[in-house]
Amino acid sequence: MSMANGRTINIDGNDLYFEERGSGPPLLLLHGFTGTSGDWQHVFDLGSLAASYRVIFPDARGHGRSTHRNGVFTFRRCALDVIELLDQLAIERVHAVGMSLGAKTLLHVATIDPSRVGRMIVVSASPRFPETTRALFRAAASAPHSPEDWEGMRALHVHGDEQIAALWKLPASFAADPTDMAFTAERLGAITAPTLVVAGDRDPLYPVELAVELYRGIPHAALWVVPEGGHGPIFHEQREEFVRRALPFLRAS
By the number of CB atoms within 10 A of the CB, which of 60, 128, 169, 225 ranks highest? Predict the structure, then answer.
């Protein structure tokens, strides 16, 4: 029997799907771009995690079971979605783990409402997008996709091919936006949450120097650079070491 409790709430005119497991201190898990909340089963033992935490894991707007009918998709807008979700759940303070899209969302949450975040782990985050990264985003948005790509996405995103096509186009808007990801040292300095910054030293999108920039800018930060790690170095053979480091960090007082 599944321990998950999935439901949908209305936020900003969109249906935001999320699941909850367990009880205890709230722990928010935010997935990466083109992923879904289900990705976390490939990182954590969610049953064991739910024995210690009230685990909350949403599908970001436009992903999975969540819709994106209106508004501009930005990382800041995703953060506002998260804050409203916490408001509707009457959660004042939460620990959080975010991967890529989720990590950048957390940077916004932690600067918009610093008291909302207790401890956080940001995986494959960046304070800004260099031109090399923007060029990769533009290339991704115009790349063709195989039938196998489509079938893989259809298994995750339930609102049809239009939803999937919209997701694949989004990196072009990320590349064109100069303001959404523009975290200065001053902005990062507003973060009060102890933060573990996790980066792969082979990440093609975000060179490790950007992780160091986060580490230098966030007042209470630790940095783990994953040797030979790419983008999102928390899956497959890197999963065990990530969990070994993440759980004690979240439990620390």
Answer: 60
